[in-house]
């Protein structure tokens, strides 16, 4: 991850407790692609003991704003397993929209697992009519 971050292909952020400084979560913006795509993938995790307190939503809201404004990406993609209601709710609350289902998307614990595909498009790009022009 350090090499990917150093080359501008990833951004790794960590979340620490305010009191005590324990590491409680992380988020990663990986597979950053430039050129006409300007997109990346988002992954995140949070310690079970702090789930349900809104910490990941608060952290991701700031991180997503940073990725759009400072890194200049157009699209962030995030995928989750269909049975993961927490991730589904979190991503929806941040404005991610479902785009489809990828069957046998990732091999997890030795088995291929389906994933729901979602994305969030930079709202500043949507407000700029020049950014919506298409080359045929």
TrEMBL record:
Q: Which Gene Ontology molecular-function terms are recorded?
A: protein-N-terminal-alanine acetyltransferase activity
Q: Which domain of life is it from?
A: Bacteria
Q: What is its EC number?
A: 2.3.1.267
For this protein, the record's InterPro entries field holds:
Acyl_CoA_acyltransferase, GNAT_dom, N-acetyltransferase
What residue stretches are annotated with the N-acetyltransferase domain?
Answer: 1-123
**UniProt KW keywords:** Acyltransferase, Transferase
Q: Which family does it belong to?
A: Belongs to the acetyltransferase family. RimJ subfamily.
Task: Write the protein's name.
Answer: [Ribosomal protein S5]-alanine N-acetyltransferase
Q: Which organism is it from?
A: Paraburkholderia nemoris
Q: Which gene encodes it?
A: rimJ
């Amino acid at each position: 991850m350090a090499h990917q971050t150093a080359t501008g292909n990833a951004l790794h952020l960590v979340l620490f407790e305010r009191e005590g400084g324990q590491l409680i979560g992380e988020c990663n913006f990986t597979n950053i692609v430039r050129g006409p795509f300007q997109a990346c993938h988002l992954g995140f995790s949070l310690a079970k003991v702090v789930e349900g307190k809104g910490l990941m939503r608060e952290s991701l809201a700031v991180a997503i704003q940073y990725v759009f404004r400072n890194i200049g990406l157009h699209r962030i993609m995030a995928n989750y397993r269909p049975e993961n209601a927490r991730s589904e709710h979190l991503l929806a609350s941040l404005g991610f929209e479902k785009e489809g289902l990828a069957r046998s998307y990732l091999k997890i614990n030795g088995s291929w697992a389906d994933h729901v595909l979602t994305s969030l498009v930079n709202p500043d790009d949507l407000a700029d009519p020049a950014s919506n022009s298409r080359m045929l």
